[in-house]
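From the pipeline queue, job 12 of 40. The input is one protein chain; the requested action is below.

Action: predict structure.
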Amino acid sequence: MTPSNPLRDESGSTPLESTAHLMDRINSQLVRQLTLVSLDGRRRPAPAPDLVVVAHGSRDPRALATVTALLDIVRELRPGLGMRLGHIELNEPLLGDTLAEATGSAVLVPLLLSRGYHVKHDIPEAAAHAPHLDTRVAAPLGPHPLLVDALHDRLVEAGWPTGAGQAARRTGGVVLAAAGSRDPDSATDTRRTADLLAQRLGVPVIPAYATPTPAAPLSVSAAVRALAARGRHRTAVASYFTAPGRFATQCADAAPWIAAAPLGAHQAMAHLLLHRYDQARATASATAPAATATSPAPQAPPRQLASA
């Protein structure tokens, strides 16, 4: 048996290797600190954290194309902001790989419309597995009035009348078609969006789901029948999905009249991503010591009707 090396520690490294590794870490930290100091000795503002957009992922190739187009709009709205994309599943890059390649700090913004398992567990867990990063996880996109802006525009594009009179409002209705979740908070968030859209349109809006669960039991077809039973025979389906995919197509096929496209690469969606990013940064600054809170004030999104 070959004798063990008495100079090797429990990690398998020799003291010389461990010392070299420690010196590399110290040098890296010094370099980062020096970049925060200008030539006249004054402290420079810390660089803004990267925006990491966390999409769900889909086997439908249109989904990735749509998310990429949305990120292009975000880049136009906030030039110079570091931006990365990570997927929870089905598409590359996966979130874990995106975070492994990132450095410094990052704000993870879910490209998801409500609370649920991905927001509460998957994304925070991925952030916890990136200890080299200073991370914050932002709120999901919904509910928020900017989503209602996008939903309204998609309905109008599909043929929803913008100047509907009282007679049309008495016979019209909308099914807000979402994916579905076992988490009751997800259904609560979707109902809040449905209420906001109903106020905007002046007709009943019923939330329904591609995959009904005990927490969200109503299917799109059942919601259409419920509206018809109330005399609402001109029923549209509003697609409460961020991008095309199997569930969005399934829900659109159940529409008795018009079906709107998914939210997709809409200006309101891009503004909302940045709004959630700024919210998360503002929260971090509010809890940081005054001497280190150097982030600029968050930018309010246009046409914001209420905080969410």
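Job complete. The first helix runs from residue 15 to 34.
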